[in-house]
Structures are given as C-alpha cells and as structure tokens.
Amino acid sequence: MILTKAQYDEIAQCLVSVPPTRQSLRKLKQRFPSQSQATLLSIFSQEYQKHIKRTHSKHHTSEAIESYYQRYLNGVVKNGAAPVLLELANEVEYAPSLMARIILERFLQEHDETPPSKSVINSMLRDPSQIPDGVLANQVYQCIVNDCCYGPLVDCIKHAIGHEHEVLLRDLLLEKNLSFLDEDQLRAKGYDKTPDFILQVPVVMLCLLAVEGHIIHWIESKASFGDECSHHAYLHDQFWSYWNRFGPGLVIYWYGFIQELDCNRERGILLAACFPTDIITLCHSTA
Amino acid sequence: MVLAHFLGGTVCFGRKMQAGFHNCSPAPSTLSPAGGYRAATARQRPGSSRESMGTARTAGSSRAPPQGAPEDGGGGDSPPWAGARRPRSAGSPGRALSDPPNLSNLEEFPPVGSVPPGPAGTKPSRRINPTPVSEERSLSKPKTCFTSPPISCVPSSQPSALDTSPWGLGLPPGCRSLQEERAMLRKERSKQLQQSPTPTCPTPESGLLLPSRTGSLTVEPADPARVSSRQRLEVVALVYSSCIAENLVPNLFLELFFVLQLLTARRMVAAKDNDLEPSQGTLDSLESPLFQSIHDCVFFAVQVLEHQFQILSYLDKGTLKLLAENERLLCFSPALQGRLRAAYEGSIAKVSLTMPPSAQAVSFQPETDNRANFSSDRAFHTFKKQRDVFYEVLREWEDHHEEPGWDFEKGLGSRIRAMMSQLSAACSHSHFVRLFQKQLLQMYQSPGGAGGPVLGEASDVLNMLGADKLGRLRRLQERLAAPPSSGGPCPPPTFPGYQGFFKDFILSASSFQFNQHLMDSLSLKIQELNGLPLPQHEPADEDGESDVDWQGERRQFAMVLLSLRLLAKFLGFVAFLPYRGPEPPQSRELQDSIVALRSQVPPVLDVRTLLQRGLQAQRAVLTVPWLVEFLSFADYIVPLLDYYRSIFTLLLHLYRSLVLSREGEGEMCFLNKLLLLAVLGWLFQIPTVPEDFFFLEECQVDALEVDTATSERGLDSVPVVDQQLLYTCCPYIGELRKLLASWVSGSSGRSGGFVRKITPTTTTSLGAQLPPSGHGLQAQLAQAFFHNQPPSLRRTVEFVAERIGSNCVKHIKATLVADLVHQAESLIQEQRMTQSQEVGDPAQLLEILCSQLCPHGAQALTQGREFCQRKSPGAVRALLPEETPAAVLSSAENIAVGLATEKACAWLSANITALIRREVKAAVSRILRGQGPEPAARGERRGCSRACEHHAPLPSHLISEIKDVLSLAVGPRDPDEGVSPEHLEQLLGQLHQMLQCRQFLCPPAEQYLAKCSVELASLLVADQIPILGPCASHRLERGEARRLLLMLLSLWKDDFQGPVPLQLLLSPRNVGLLADTRPREWDLLLFLLRELVEKGLMDRMEIETCLGSLHEALWPEDFSEELETLTRLFLAELHLPEPQQRACELVQPSRGTVLAQS
After folding, report:
1. What is the largest CA-CA distance in chain B?
2. Which of A164, A273, B197, B1040 is in Cβ range 3.0-4.6 Å of B1000 for a Cys bridge?
3. Mean pLDDT of chain B
4. Three-state SS for B269?
5. CA–CA separation, A105 vs A116, rounded Å?
C-alpha cells in the first residue's frame, strides 16, 4: 500500500486526538474502507506515538502525577469497578498503558517507600496479578487490554509481526533460491551493523517503468508503514549504515510507505511494499 | 635566437595578430606558448598564493631584464638553482626610439574586432627568453642553446650586431623590442593587478582572435600561394622541429599546441580590404618578421606538423580526424593530409567513454573490521559511528558541493573535526585512514570518479551535427555551463570530482594525527604498488600469448599506475601542506635559513631511491608518472633542497633522453615515452619548479647516467601505455583536439570545444601480490623454476597458495576450534550438574577450560598441513592450462602446497592458542549469561511437517484477536458489542492450527498466547465474556463453555511447547472475577480443575497449594465460604475412584445447584 504524501496526510489528519482504543480503530476503518487495516493501524500507531512523544513530559511533572493519582483514588473509592483509570487516560489524552504505569509507580512508591525498580513495574504490567492491590490490578489490566498502541501486549504483537515478516522474507528468499546470511549469522561473524539479510550473491531488482534495474546487496524487513519520521530515523540509524558497509539494498515496508520517500534509489536505498517480483540473478553458465 | 623568440610567445604573436598585419614591423615575434599558458595557468592554481607568484614571476622573471634593472644589480651571485640572472649583453643594441611602432603594445594597437582579448592573454608569465645564439656556443653546446637562456657566463666575444645566423632576423631589433615588450608587460601587469588583484575566474588567454560577430568581417582564408618567405619558414620549421624532436623544449605538447594555434589562427579582414599585403620586396629581408600573414602562420604550422607526423599519428582518433579534416592543412599539404587520413583510418586509439556508476562504499570485511581488530569495545563502537559519519558527510558533499554558495568548511567542517577528536580519543585513526584511502582509491577507480557529467564525444558530435550546427551548440553550451575546460594545455594540479572532497576533508579535518596516519598509509601503499611484480610482456609463443591475457596485463598496469598517481598526489599534497606558502622567500638569507632547516628533515617517502631503482629496473614508465604527481605539490623550497634537486636533475636527464624518433632494441616504447614526456613537460611548468631549471641545469650525463644495462627487459620496453591511459593521465593533451574542434565550430578560444572526460575504466580491486618469503635452496629453486615459466604460472601458484593457506585457517576455525568450543560447553554443563547450577568464578573457569583444551591446538598444524596437501594440487591443476607438462605441473603443485602450508602454519602456530582462548571465553560468557549454546547448536524446535503450507493464521493476528476478546470482556464496551460462541471456537481452532504449524511463531509470542489463553479460560469460568446472539442473557451456554474449556485444555496439553502459566487460573485476581457474578457459579471452575488434574497439566498438590493461598486474600464473607466449599469438594474427590464419572455428575445439574448439593 504505497500512499502519496497527500493521501497520507489526509489519513493523518483524521487521527489527531483520537484515543488508542478499539472503538477508534473501528471508526477509522469505516472512514477509509479502501485502505488495508494493517496499514491503517500502523499509521495510527505511529501518529499516536508522535503525539505521545510530544506530550510525554507534561504528564510526568510531579504535579500532574499527583493530580492523576488523586483522581484515581477518588474514582475507585466511588466505584472500583468503573473504568476509572482508562477514562482518566482518555480524558487527558494519554496512552492508557502509560497512565497505568504512572499510577502503579506512584502507588508502589506510597506503599513501599523506596521507589520501585523498573523491572518490578514491567513485570507487574505484564502480569497484573502480581499487583498487591486487587482494584488497581483490575484497573491496570483494563488499561492494558484496551490500549492498542502501547503496553506489553501491543509490544508483543509488534514483535511478533516483525518476526513473522522476517520469516516470510526468509521463506521467499529460500523459495527464490537466493542464498543469504541472516542477522544471527552476521552477528556471529562480528559485523557491527546487521541488516535482516545480506545476499551472498547480489541481485538486480527491476522496477516498474524503469529501464535499468538496481543492484541489491541486502534486504531489511520493516513490518510497519514507512512514514517520514520513522523512515528518516531508520535511514540514519540503519539503512545508510548498511549502505556504507554493504552497498545498495532494499527495504521492504510491508505495510506500505509514502511514495515520496523512495527518493534514494540512485544512491542505493530502494523501497518496496512487498517482495519484488522482477529479480535478475547472476547467471552461472553451466558448461 | 629567432628560435628562442619564436618559442617565446604565443601571446605576443596573438596580439600581433589582433593588431593585424598592416604594419610590417621588424619587431620580432616573441612567441611564448609556454609563457602564455603559464600566465593563464598560474592564475588557476588553487590558493591565491600562486597568483601573485605568477605575476611576480612575470615581472621579475626576465632572465634578460633591461640593463641596469634594479633587481639585477643587487643579487650579485644568484643562487645556482634559481637561475643566473645576468645582464643581457648579447647584442643589446643602442637603437633609438625611432623604431616602428611596437605592435605588441595593446595601448597603441588595440585589437581588431569587437571582442577585446581576455586579460590573461596579456599576462605571459613563463616567458622563454630570447637567446642570442652565438656561433661559439651553438657549436659547443648545440643541444641546449636554442631554447635555453644563456648560461652563467657570457661569452666574451659577442657576435657582431648584424647577425648572420641563419635564423633570419637581426638580433638587435629583436632584443630591443623584447626589452620594450617586457617593460610594457610589466606595466601592463601592474595595471591589471591594481584593477583586479584576484581574478575570479580563469580567463583563457586570447592568443587568437575571437570571431567577429559583425557581418562585415570574415576570417581571412589562408592561401599557400601568398606565403611570404617560404624558404626561410622552411628552415625555421626544420630547426624548430629538431628542437622538439630532441626534447630541447620544456614541454612537447605545449609546442604542438602552439603549432596548432598557428594552424587555426584567424585574422579578420574587412571583406573588401585585402590590399595590405606586404610588398614582395620586403619579404625576404632578414629584418622582416617571421610571420607576416596568416598564410605564413599556416605554412609554418603545416611544415612543423609534417616533421612531427610520427607524434601526431599516435594521438587519439578524434584528434586525427579533426586534423585530417582541417581544410587549411589539406590546402597546404595534401600529402600530409593523406597520411593523417590514413593514420586516422588505421587508428584504433579510440579513447572511450564509460558511464559513471554511483559511488560505492568500502565494504565491511569481518576479517579486518570486526571487534577482534580493535583494542577495546569503545574503539570498535567509535569507529562504527565514525564510518557512518564519514559517509554521511560524503553524501552531503555529493548533494551540495555544486550548489552556489555552499562551503565545505561551513557545511561539514565542524562535523569532520568532531569526528577527528572522537577518533583521536579512541586511537582509531589507523582504521579510519584505511577506510579513507580505500574509499579514495575505489572512487577513483570507478569511472565516475573523474568528474561530473560528460557532454559528449567531439568527433561524434561533429559527425552528427556538421560544422555549422556545432558552433551554435557550442555557444549554447557556453551559456549553459561554465566551460569544462581542463585549463589549457598546461593546467595546474587540481582535484577534480571526488578528489575535491578528499582534499577538502583533509583541510577541514586539520588533524595532525590524521595526516600522519594518512601519510604513513599512503607511503606504504605506494611502495607496495610500485614494487608490484608487474608481468613483463612475454615474447609471443608459437600460438602467441592470447590477446585476453595481454589486455588484462595492460589493464592491470593502467590500474596500478592510476592508483599510484592518485595516492602520490595525495601524499604530495599532505606532505607539503605545512610548507605551502604564497610565494618563495623574498630574501636570500631567509631562503638559506629555510633551506638549512628543511634539509635536515627526512623526506616523507624516499622517492629518490624509488626513482633510481625504477630507472635501473627500466620501470620509469611506472615510477615517473606518480613521482610527477607527488612533486607537483612541492612548495617553493623543495627544488632547492639537495635531495629533491637531484631528483629533478634525474628527471630532466630522463626527459632529454627520451628521444621519440629513436627506436630499436631495448628502447622504451613510443607511447611509454610520450606519456613520460607529457607528464614531465607538465611538471616543468609548475610554478614552484624554478622556471630556468630546464635551461640551466647542466646535465652531467655521465654523473647521472643510470646503469640501465640490466639483463632483463624492463617494463619500459613493454607497450603498456595506450592512448586511453595517456589521455587519462594527461587530459591536457585533449586540448589539442579542443583547439581543432573550436576551429571547426567557427569559434575560438580554448574555453570551448567539446571536452571529453577521459576516465579510468578499471575497477577491480588491487590485490597486493607480495612475493612469498621462502628460505634456503628450495626457495631459490622455486624462484628459478618460475624464471623460465610464463608469469601466469607464478601468479597462479602464488594465488592458490595464498587462498588455500587462508582457507586452511578458516577450516581449522570451523572444525577443530569449534569442536573444542563444544567440549568446553559440555564441560561447563557437566560442572553445572554436579555443582548444582553454581559455576563459580568465570575467570577461573576459563583458565581451567583453557588449560584442558589449548594443548589440543597442536593438532591444528597437522590438520593444516593435511588440508593444504589435499586442496592445493587440485586448484593448481584446474587453473593451469591443460597442456602444461606433467613435470611442470607437479612442481607447481608442490610449490603451491609448500607455500600454502607455510602460510597457514605460520599463522596457526602463532595464533591458535589465542584463538581457542577467545572462542572458549565467548562460549563461557554466553552460557553464564544463560543464552545457552549458539542458535545453530540449539537444535530446530520449531518446524512443522514438510507437507505444511503454513496457511495457519499468524501469531500476531491471534494475539490481537484474543486481546480484543479480553478487552471486550473487561470493558468498557458498547451495549451492542460482544463475541459469538462460534467466533470463540474458531479462534481456539486457529490457535491450534497455528501452534501446530509454528512457522511464524517466536518464543515471546507463544508465551503471551499461553498467558492470554489462561486469562480467556478464567473469563470463561467466570462467565464474563459478553456473547452476541439470540440468548438474551448475553451469557454463554454452559455446554458451550465447557467445550471451549476443553479446547483450551487440549491446547495447553498438546500444542503449547513453552510453559503455560496455569497457576494464574487460581490467582486471586482471576478467581475474584467470580465474585462479581450473581449468582456465583463454581461448577465450571471445578470442572476445569478436575480436567487439569486429569490431563496431568497440574497436580493436585499444586492446586491445593493455590487454593490454600487463595484463602489468605481478603474476600467478602460469603465468597470466602463458597471458596471453602469448593476446596473441600475438590479435595474430597481426590479419594474417589472414578473422577471422570463424578465430574459428569457434577456438571449435569443446572446452574447454581452444585453447591447446594454438596
């Protein structure tokens, strides 16, 4: 799903101040029926993350934390079964999972006096049964299962998606009989930067409407939508580094990307939304 | 004398042309192609310093300044190198001012035509002085006198004022007029300096007239019938040609360029006005100028070209075509035209043009780049970052350097310096320098490196468009872009294309450490390449060494030569960078002290020895071109230092000795010579090389005679240079073609024409082929064996040995060392078993392991020997020709085995222990970190049957679906939201499929799925899942719920391979879900618990413990009681014989009755 910048902007426009809930996603799908759900979810997630990055600090002032905690306490005193924490998060436009973390941290601080370690908090978020307060456990759990952009469950889904696409790509490479080195092998050899796959024999990828092809030495799988922000970060941290070491290569954004970002073809960074169909391999003359 | 004048000044000549030939002045033509170009080129040198130099040189450089000129008197004894400036005495006449007007004076004789000459045209800087040729001296030193200024002592007896020399011109007027001209030039220059001290762009000197764009003027056609003094011109042409042939001119191509200028000179005449022909009477007078008309010029030029036909015939095809098509040439000498045409048709010297590929980065090679090559993690990671910064900077440069207003220093300087300080802190300069140098070589070896886009090939464009359109096209080009000229026939050293980046990088980095490392690295690489045993041309065998081989060898030579030139250029640049100054020291004292200071500094690379060795081994064709690049960056002091002076002298001697017409056994090949003449001629024009050096240096041939009487034929006598290489090394030779092309296009000036960029085409990497070190007699025998075999045999054997040796090491790593690592792993595991997970101090453990394992390393040598023995012969056999004699073959195989073994064993014996240690250490830390053995060793756990097509839903999809169900159950939800029982069933079915396939499953996903499935079960037990459908209660049928629970149980039992957190089913939170339902229903929980026990998923004790701990939580009283009942009920069943039956009974009754019954 390759979108033009204009198309992308139109979608992004609809995502301003939308809470990351099940319901929001449903509405978004109705609004853009022609786009794939995965693409929409990926864009939504990225846009929401940008929003959170922008506003993160204002939710972490001690005043803000104190006020959230008081509101939480007041809420659960009134009705422990009501979605107090979730509604609080939605009201202040903050991610429910992150709100749960703030409150949990504050709660543990109050009860243990020593600030809880990060690993303890993470563990409790992963398994709220460990939270000593039953009401808070339920509230936290509710936040986590209702948050579709943050939280341990979402992280796991994202990780799984990434892994699945790497496997998919590996299978495609095997199917095409292209031999490669994967990340683990590269790391074992001591490479300092490791794309998902380095082709042991480069191939030429033919592009639609272009006469000449592009040589590819490596392939990176990205199970997300390539928007400007993430693409630039990836370019800086990964893709150029790969180019600097291995030459030109291909990035597959499985959930599509903004067309205008595919501007480094001549330089040696190619973008695609699926595994290329037209590939030319080095011919071995079988004498 | 005439010749000297003659050689002295294109510029003045040009100016005269502008002035027209109206006045027959006895003033001699003071031609100075060199001077003319020098002026232009000096101006274009990088760094403004050179400019002032150029001008200073011109003003003060007159070796024959007017008498009594102040600068002469002072010095007394001028430094020997800087040139003896001595009062000119040869026939300095006392002629008064009643002379004819000086045509050279621009003020008096403004140029004809509307286009004024460019300022640079009037700035000759390196002017070759007129030399009065006395009979004595012409006898005694016939070889140097024509183009040299008089040497230190003046012959006391002067020839009479009226010169009877055959050169035709009387000396007196010449000298006088010359002095005048110098004075005028000086005046002119100072004027211009005031006006524009720093000319911003190089202006091509306008030795020739620009075409008039007014309609009334036309180019005067040249007519052989109207040549004024044939005989005299013929003689001069002969002498001039002899000077060229004997290398008595400082720059061969400069002279050719001048001749072609004459050939293509234009003179504008009004259409009607042709009557200014000098009268025949004056023509033969010795007093008349040599060139009185355009006809004279062309005649002379054609005469010279006839003499120089041999050189011409070696020029590239495009130039030959332009020459052959020149109508003037045809008109003056049809014979020459015919020969040129024949040469053109027979020529294969097409200088090809290749499309530039985009820049490639230096690839990461684990052998040299991984962590093992760095002293610390920090150094490794610093270098990792700096590598990326370097390319980032390079990319930014690519994007911006052509933009107006972009400045390297402003744009990138601070980033580069930050990078340098990082590298200094991490001591990683050597790594970076290696990257820098490799990238430099790589970019320049790739054809795109030479520079920007290419306009097109001149001759082809000519063919396509025809002459008239070409002119228009050219003007269009002029408007579109700045002329891509390489800066005349003698351009200053420049850094075209990517080289500019590397140069500016060095300047911006301004890091002492970096420069030092760079010089070290460049020097080493230069020596390595210079010493490369380049194959000598083999005398053709019966079948003739195949063309392919020959092409390959030529290509290899070109590649090595171009790489050397590039490296040497940068070495020269960096080495002389600290000494670069705007101009030579002003006073003699200052100069002496600097020279004294510099004399004791050892040269950065012992180039003199390399040169001497190169000459001795007859490898000048390889050594001299890069040495010239190196020296072209010398500062003003360098030529004054004894060390370098001797190099210059050697080079001059070499230059003189390269007489092109001399052929025969042992002589250097023609094109090899031509290349050396071109680069040396170019070097002699560099401003820092003292201008009079060429003429002053007494070539004491005997002293400098190098012993070239070696037995073997050196590289010099092998035709390794072709036109492609010649033009690549000396793009300025292409100026000849441009000049001719601009004649065709009807326009003048050397800014125009079509520039064909010549780029190197070799891209293969340079492999150092150092001869292997051998010892003793065997080594000598091996050497002797190769001596009489084709060089390809030696290359093959060395190559095989090198590769097999290296493969052997890798093989040992992968087998022996890997086995030892496995042993280490199992030893650790054993120890863990026995000592109950406690392994103890890792360092101690490592020591124990190493002491056990390292002795096994000794096997490496035996295994290595065995490997080389096994592998080498086959490889040698495969690579050598089938027809190789058996004895030769087996010797070659044995040598290869020996060399490979030597290489492998040397490495292994030195490194095997360290290697084992390193690998074992890595294994230990891996195990201690709990990673377990390497992924490969872990064994394939995932993987479905071969028949599986992996159509199961993806794990991520299922997690996400289950998450949705969980969120619906937990709420908040809209009233119309819910799930259908079918959906739940389908979901669990998919989960089953997916867990069977496992193709896309990763451990964290499985873990979360297990956890979510347990949560789902808890929600089912607590009846918390909102159900869509006809059932008004939105509750699940109990039978349905049980079916789903059974599916989950089966998943947990059979499908999940990781641990399932079943104890969560009895966590207070999940059991607490029951507390909220009214009426509470315990039957499903009881059912689930029984099934867990039944299926062996949990044992009773475990459940009992969980139930027990549940009581500790705070519950509503009634809930506690019910929980108590459940526990009792569950425990009671422990003793019943048929739990299955009991369970059935239990679930039979309707909701809410279970507890009542109990």
Report:
1. 150
2. A164
3. 70
4. strand
5. 7
CA distance B553 to B545: 11
Among A150, A170, A200, give the residue marking a domain's end: A150
Query: Among B894, B855, B852, B898, which Cα is nearest to B873's?
Result: B894
Same domain, B989 and B922: no
Query: What does the alpha-carbon distance between residue B901 and residue B871 come to, in Å, rounded to a whole number?
Result: 11
The residue with greater pLDDT, B843 or B993, is B993
* Distance between start and end Cα atoms, chain A: 43
Most B-contacting residue of A21, A122, A184, A245 (CB-CB within 10 A), to test interface: A245
Identify whether B1116 is preceded by a cis peptide bond (ω within 30 of 0).
no
Measuring CA to CA, which residue among B368, B559, B522 is closest to residue B436?
B522
On whether both B246 and B297 belong to a single domain, the answer is yes
Q: How far apart are CA B865 and CA B867, in angstroms?
A: 5
**Which residues does chain A have within 8 Å of residue B384's beta carbon, measured at their own beta carbons?**
192-193
Q: Could you give the C-alpha distances from B835 to B147, B827, B1098, in angstroms and in order? A: 95, 12, 29
Contact B450, B755 (CB under 8 A): no
- Find out whether A92 and A59 touch, Cβ atoms under 8 Å: yes
- Residue B1030 tokens read as 């006809």
Q: What are phi and psi of B218, to 5 degrees?
A: -130, 165
Same-domain status, A188 and A271: yes
Q: Which domain holds residue A52?
A: 2-56
For A263, counting Cβ atoms within 10 Å of its Cβ (0-12 exposed, 13-18 middle, 19+ buried), the class is: exposed
What distances in angstroms separate CA B364 from CA A193, A204, B369, B392, B658, one per listed residue?
9, 21, 6, 16, 45
Residue written as tokens 């001629």?
Answer: B681
- Cβ of residue A164 closer than 8 Å to a chain B Cβ: yes
Residue B1087's domain comprises 955-1132
pTM: 0.68
More confident residue, B691 or A87: A87
Q: Has residue A18 got a pLDDT over 80?
A: yes
Cα dist. B961→A165, B326, B789, B953, B980 in Å? 18, 84, 75, 11, 13
Predicted confidence (pLDDT) per residue in B890-945, tens digit: 888 888 998 899 888 888 888 888 888 888 887 777 776 654 444 444 334 455 66
The DSSP secondary-structure symbol of A269 reads: E
Burial (0-12, 13-18, 19+ Cβ within 10 Å), B526:
buried
Residues 364-383 of B with CB under 8 A from A: 364, 366, 369-372, 380-381
- DSSP string of B507-539? HHH--HHHHHHHHHHHHHHHHHHHT--PPPPPP
Q: How many domains does chain B have?
A: 3
DSSP state of A88: H
> Is B886 within the bounds of a domain?
yes
Distance from CA of A53 to the nearest CA of B (A): 24
CA–CA min distance B596, chain A (Å):
47
Q: Per-residue pLDDT tens for B278-301?
A: 444 444 556 677 787 888 888 899
- The arithmetic mean of pLDDT across residues A171-200, rounded, is 88
Of B1083, B971, B1088, B1069, residue with least CA distance to B1025: B971
Q: How far is A231 from chain B (nearest CA, A)?
A: 16
Lowest-pLDDT choice from B181-195, B844-858, B908-922, B1129-1143 = B181-195
| Selection from A272, A116, A108 nearest residue A203 by Cα | A272
Q: Which of residues 30-69 of A touch B (CB under 8 A)?
A: none
ipTM (interface pTM):
0.92
pLDDT level of residue B760 (50, 70, 90 thresholds): very low
Query: Does B917 share its domain with B1053?
Result: no
Cα distance from N-terminal residue to C-terminal residue, chain B: 137
Tell me: do A269 and A166 sit in the same domain.
yes
